[in-house]
Structure formats: C-alpha cells, structure tokens
Amino acid sequence: MIRWMSAGESHGEALVGIIDGIPAGVEVNTEGLSAALARRRLGHGRGARQKFEKDVVRILGGVRHGITMGSPVAIEVANSEWPKWEVVMSADPVPREALLIDAGTGDEREVARNRPLTRPRPGHADFAGMMKFGHEDARPVLERASARETAMRVALGYVAKEFLRQVADIEIVSHVVAVGKEKSAADAPQPKDAAALDESPVRSLDADTEGRFIAAIDAAHKSGDTIGGTVEVIAYGVPVGIGTYTQWDQRLDARLAGALMSIQSAKTVTIGSGAEQVESLGSAAHDEIIVEGGIRRDTNHAGGIEGGMSNGEPIIARVGFKPISTVPRARKTIDLATKEQAPALHQRSDASAVVPAAVIAEAMMALTLANSVIEMFGTGSVDRIRAALQDYVKGVQGRVTP
C-alpha cells in the first residue's frame, strides 16, 4: 500500500514529505514536480503572497536518474521567504535580543512577526488548536493548519499521478463548477483539455462562465470579503473493480471522500450526481447497463463508483469549499490574553482559493487511486503491475464482449 505524510510549517524553512510504496520504474523529475506546483499557484483571486513566494523543490530520495527505485520518495519544498522568518521560526532557541528591535525612540519592541497572536480567527483552527495543545499564542497552530501544507500534497500527488498515467493510463482533470452562487455552464472536461484549463484564470472552458466567476471574485474582493465555491475532479480510464465492498475502510468512495474532505476549507464532498441522485426516484437514479458490442452506461449518476468499487465509468467527485476564513472585515472573537471581546486578527489572504483547490483535489484523488491500484495489482515494479492490470482488463473484456 501507499503511505505518505508531510511535515513543516507555513513560514518554516521548508515542507518535507515522504511517499512510500511507489514501485520502481516510474518516471519523475524535478522539472515535472516544479510544473505541478506551479499549477497550484494559478487562479484569479489569489493574494500577493503567490507572486513573491516561490516553490523551490528538491527530490531528496527514492529517485535515481529520473526513475523511482522502489524505496520511499522524499521531497522538499523550500520557503523562499525563510530569511524573513529564520529567527522567529527557528527550531533552536534564540537569544531574547534577537527578537527585539530598536523602535527609534530609545526603547525596544518585539519583532512584529513574533508578537503573540492571542485573538483566534473564527473559521480557522486557531481556537480549538490553542485549547487542545495548551498554546497561549495561535502561531504554532496556524503555521501547520495553513493551506501552505497543500503544496506538499500536490508534490506527492504528482508522483501518484505519474504512476497512474504510466501504469494504467488513468488521467485526472479538474475544473471549477461554482463560485459563490454562480454556476458553470461548461461541459465536463476531458484530459485533452488540461492545458486550456490551466490557462483559464478560473479553470473553466466556457467564456461566459469564466466572466461570471471572475466578476463574483472581484465583487467579493472589492467589498472586503471572501468567496467560496465548488470544484469537480474527474478520473478517466479507471478499470472496473478498484476498491472493495468487503470492508468499510477499503471502499473507494469512502476513501476518496475522506481524502477530499481533508483539504483545508472543504465542507462538502459528493460522488457523481450527489444530491440530485438522492432526490431522484430509483427508476431514474441508477445507470443502466447497455449491451452494444460490449457494455456501456447511458448515464453516470453514480460517478463511476458502485458498492465501494469503480464500475468502469469516469470517477467524478465534487468538493465544496467555504470562503476563506481570514476575512478583511474582521469578525468578532475573544482576546485570550484579556478574556475580552476583540476583533479577529487579519493577515494577508486571497479573495478566493477555489481555483487552486481544484488542483489540490486532483492530487488527493491521485493518491487515493494509486493506493487502491497497488492494493489490487501488487507492487515491486511498474512492468509487473502493468502486466497484472492488463491481464485483468483483458479478462474483464472477455467476460462482457459477445
């Protein structure tokens, strides 16, 4: 099975991640990794931080001459802003004097970045994290809870996506289907549309939709607010039978829902038609199996998953994201230093993070599918897994083809 984890803080020296279980023979390189991370920085509504903080990446282990070796793949995403935070976020103790500055009037003041953050922001992990870990300052909480952590998810997801593409011809694509109350009029994209989606500031192939989405984001920004939305991520080429109905924690839809819900600000996850299917009668809700020189489905309300397993149709999932919690119009909170009502802290933020959320959702789907593929077809080398998968697909085709 594939295991992965990350470490590091938003303003720390670097994010580091390890993905274990990737077989030998997957072609990956630093150039491809950098391109994957660059996609996460795209999107209308992104704040100034995306313009000056660059992702400097290194593959530290598990890859030799552009080919995975079967050992854990280790990746580092460095923080280009580290010099500004080196003292404040130092892992080792620092002299008190290093955290003070001359205010110019003969007195000393604490470096602004080190001032205790005692007013937890509504919608963030600040309050609960401070209570859970006993912190008097929200800094240790927000540094790890920050969506900056998703840069490593995208990095590790790049490795998983390359495995899926090279072994199983599985391709994953995403687009934005809603910004606030504005809905998309675009058809579901295909893998061939990936470049065009990256070119769109709101990941839409429809010009009218693109204009409405941009206007909604601009309106929120102008009014000192933030706005959420919904993304759709689709996996093409997934063979039938990935996942299982035999145990609750091995069901593909359960795993996928958990992975997608784990993305910061995610509030809803639906597979296939979601609420529309729930509200339908049974005669209209399910995808009939049509026999025409093989088998196909006229519809895909199930989103490619039935009984916890892929059914051979594209896997479709939607993720709804709340508006970013750091709102320029400060929300009410408590100052834990004084125990009094106070306005919440406000740090720079984006007006909307829906567009990069789609790219992150791709990574989470890739990591989930890669794990289930390896569980079903074994590990070791790319050639061995590919041969097992092709033999299985050939057997399936033989059973359904007249």
Return the CATH architecture.
4-Layer Sandwich
Q: Which CATH class applies here?
A: Alpha Beta
Radius of gyration: 23 Å
Class by SSE composition: alpha+beta
Strand count, sense and barrel status of the largest sheet are:
5 strands, antiparallel
Q: State the shape.
A: globular
CATH superfamily: Chorismate synthase AroC
Overall tally of structural domains: 1
Our count of helices gives: 13
> How is the CATH topology named?
Chorismate synthase, AroC fold
Q: Total strand count, please?
A: 19
**End-to-end CA span:** 36 Å
Helix amount, in percent? 25-40%
- Spans where pLDDT lies below 50 across 5 or more residues: none
SSE topology:
Elements: E1 3-7, E2 14-20, H1 30-40, H2 49-52, E3 55-61, E4 63-64, E5 67-68, E6 73-79, H3 82-85, E7 100-102, E8 108-110, H4 126-133, H5 139-145, H6 150-168, E9 171-179, E10 182-183, H7 194-199, H8 207-222, E11 229-236, H9 252-261, E12 266-271, H10 275-279, H11 282-285, E13 289-291, E14 295-297, E15 305-306, E16 309-310, E17 315-321, E18 332-335, E19 340-343, H12 354-377, H13 382-400
Antiparallel strand pairs: 1-2, 2-6, 3-6, 4-5, 7-8, 9-10, 9-11, 11-17, 12-17, 13-14, 15-16, 18-19
Helix pairs in contact: 1-6, 6-12, 6-13, 9-12
